[in-house]
Every structure is written in C-alpha cells, then in structure tokens.
Specification:
The longest helix has 48 residues. The chain contains four helices and no strands. The protein starts with a helix and ends with a helix. By secondary structure, the protein is mostly helical. The chain is rod-shaped and about 75 Å long.
Length: 122
C-alpha cells in the first residue's frame, strides 16, 4: 500500500472509468440523434401525404422507417442511461491523504481547516 503505487492505481482506474462512461454517453447520444432523425423523416413523409403528394414508394419507405424507429427505441429502452459520475482528478491525492489521516501511526496531523471544501472545489 505504498502511496506512490496506490496513486498510480487510482489514477489508472479513474482514467478508465471516465473513458468508459464517456463512451457509453456518446453511444447513447448518437442513438438518440438517430432516433430523432428517423422521427423527422416519418413526419416529412406524413406531411407530404397530407399535402397530396402520395407515391407508392412512400409506403415502403415508411415501413422501413418504422422498423428503424422500433429498433432504435428498443435499444434505448434496454440500455439504461449511464450515470453522469466522473471520478475527480485528485482522487489519488485524497485517498492517500485520508489513509494517512485515519492511521495515527502514519501521521499525527489533524484536518486542515476547510480541507474538504477546498478538495471538492478543485
């Protein structure tokens, strides 16, 4: 539990966690954009039909769009929204400081005034 080794581990874990969360959020955002685009296309076809511009190929295209919409909607429903949690860049510093603080044999110091406010704001 050497502080330098713990710091490296915590930093790598923090980086991997944040990257994974960012990837999940980006994938979900893309699916949401694709779904909105399909819904706009469906609305466009319906608007064209209402204006009297019906073509037999519109029916086929509408069916394709409905299948795509169902696929995207079910994908969003099955994949819960990832948490917006990100691990703080100074997490390793905080862990080391807390481990020193909680073991009196390692450090007899007391909490510096306002430490927690400072740590969460940086």
């Amino acid at each position: 539990m050497h502080p330098d080794l713990v710091a490296v581990f915590v930093e790598e874990y923090r980086r991997a966690w944040n990257d994974a969360q960012a990837g999940q959020m980006a994938a979900r955002a893309k699916t949401e954009r694709d779904l909105a685009q399909v819904e706009r296309k469906i609305a466009g076809i319906l608007s064209a039909i209402e204006d009297g511009m019906y073509e037999p190929s519109m029916k086929t295209r509408m069916e394709e769009l409905k299948v795509e919409k169902a696929r995207l909607s079910s994908g969003l429903a099955e994949t819960p929204e990832p948490p917006a949690l990100r691990l703080h860049p100074r997490l390793a510093d905080h862990y080391c400081w807390m481990s020193l603080r909680t073991d009196p044999a390692l450090s007899p110091r007391s909490d510096p005034p306002g430490y927690y406010v400072f740590w969460f704001m940086t």
